[in-house]
């Protein structure tokens, strides 16, 4: 009997090429495999707005994991199947943490099926550019508020900052000691800056995979990644593949090394592994 297997890939730096796009070769190969019965999806730090845009044309057959595991989302129905919200008390602590360290951040809320991003100020050039890019290319809603506390109730799910390593390191260290919170801290694939993302301890790519196993009955998970936020996903997968451009820490935890993201490494590895069966 064939084992029910999920193939799941990170997007940026893994499935997407260095320009942040899906190559025609990857699209063709994966769609051909999916039409033949392959169960494939992705796990990303992106929200549905930008994830939907960069994966357009890919016939996703399984719900995806968004915002580093905060959400499980069904691309076919356009619905959130699971959302791990941050409690009001924990939101207060996270907001104070960023304020006390003088670090700007975005706060994300999901109300119904709508995701909205809030900010208080955008003096960090890289964060302002990020917001402009997401609004221009994906129509992602950004709303300015005077204080996150005014809008955090009833749906805050995620706090993220993009800045220099040295500026965010003390915030990361404090988040690591905060009960009820989890975080990821990793270098951005495109700018060289660092992302710090803080969320509920119930949310992670690892927990997202656990949910997909339960929802869809997968007996085995094969995952692909390149960056530090993929390590939790590696911990919940049966076979772990790093693309050759992955960080050393990720390659060290991998069972196999695939070709790079600019060489269609994910699609090539899956196609070759299926051909062997």
Notable traits:
single chain; 277 residues; alpha/beta; 5-stranded parallel beta sheet; globular
Describe the protein's architecture and organization.
The protein contains ten helices and 14 strands. It is α/β, with parallel strands linked by helices. Strand 6 and strand 7 (114-119) form a beta hairpin. The two termini are 13 Å apart.
Mean pLDDT: 92
Largest sheet: 6 strands, mixed
- Give the strand line-up of the largest sheet: 8-7-6-9-11-10
H/E series: EHHEHEEEHEEHEEHEEHEHEHEH
Oligomeric state of the chains present here: single chain
Helix content: 25-40%
Shape: globular
Distance between the termini: 13 Å
Characterize this entry briefly.
This protein has 277 residues and is of the alpha/beta class. It contains ten helices and 14 strands.
Give a topology summary.
Blueprint: E1 5-9, H1 11-15, H2 24-35, E2 39-42, H3 48-54, E3 64-66, E4 71-74, E5 79-83, H4 88-100, E6 106-111, E7 114-119, H5 125-138, E8 142-144, E9 156-163, H6 165-176, E10 181-187, E11 194-200, H7 205-216, E12 220-225, H8 231-235, E13 239-243, H9 248-253, E14 256-258, H10 265-276
Parallel strand pairs: 1-2, 1-12, 7-8, 12-13, 13-14
Antiparallel strand pairs: 3-4, 4-5, 6-7, 6-9, 9-11, 10-11
Helix pairs in contact: 2-10
């Amino acid at each position: 009997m064939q084992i029910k297997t999920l193939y799941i890939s990170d997007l940026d730096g893994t499935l997407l090429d260095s320009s942040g796009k899906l190559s025609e070769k990857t699209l063709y190969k994966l769609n051909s495999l999916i039409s033949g019965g392959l169960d494939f999806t992705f796990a990303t730090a992106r929200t549905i707005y930008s994830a939907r845009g960069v994966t357009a044309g890919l016939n996703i057959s399984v719900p995806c994991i968004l915002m580093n595991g905060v959400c499980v989302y069904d691309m076919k129905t356009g619905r959130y199947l699971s959302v791990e919200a941050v409690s009001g008390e924990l939101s207060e602590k996270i907001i104070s943490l960023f304020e006390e360290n003088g670090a700007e951040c975005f706060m994300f809320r999901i109300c119904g099926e709508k995701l909205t991003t809030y900010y208080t100020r955008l003096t960090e050039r890289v964060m302002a550019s990020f917001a402009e890019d997401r609004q221009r290319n994906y129509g992602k809603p950004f709303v300015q508020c005077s204080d996150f506390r005014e809008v955090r109730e009833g749906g805050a799910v995620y706090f993220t900052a993009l800045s220099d390593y040295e500026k965010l390191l003390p915030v990361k260290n404090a988040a690591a000691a905060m009960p009820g919170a989890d975080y990821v801290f990793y270098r951005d694939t495109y700018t060289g800056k660092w992302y710090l993302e803080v969320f509920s301890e119930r949310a992670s790519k690892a927990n997202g995979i656990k949910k997909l196993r339960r929802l869809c009955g997968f007996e085995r998970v094969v995952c692909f990644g390149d960056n530090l936020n993929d390590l939790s996903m590696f911990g919940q997968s049966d076979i772990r593949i790093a693309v050759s451009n992955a960080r050393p820490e990720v390659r060290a935890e991998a069972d196999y090394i695939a070709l790079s993201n600019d060489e269609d490494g994910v699609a090539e590895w899956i196609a070759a592994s299926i051909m062997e069966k």
